What we know:
Helix content is 3%, strand content 53%. The protein is mostly beta strands.
Amino acid sequence: xxxxxxxxxxxxxxxxxxxxxxxxxxxxxxxxxxxxxxxxxxxxxxxxxxxxxxxxxxxxxxxxxxxxxxxxxxxxxxxxxxxxxxxxxxxxxxxxxxxxxxxxxxxxxxxxxxx
Length: 115
């Protein structure tokens, strides 16, 4: 008798890509450890906005998620039934920007893989 292969952890970071299985629902905390040009810590405040933008492999916008009132430099990506339906299996890219007095790109064209 053969043993069935198990699934990989979902969600997970693999080779720099955020990965999950199509149809999965989850919450993923993202902790931002930010420093300014002098090496001083940057705290995301209540007046700041973090914007996560996701595109499919054809560079078509899938969705934009804005986070305000961030505390502890932590945001939570919640993938519920409605959000997971937007992501059939395939490759996606995301950008994360911070508006903190000025606009700063924190992540550019990073990969997402939905299996």
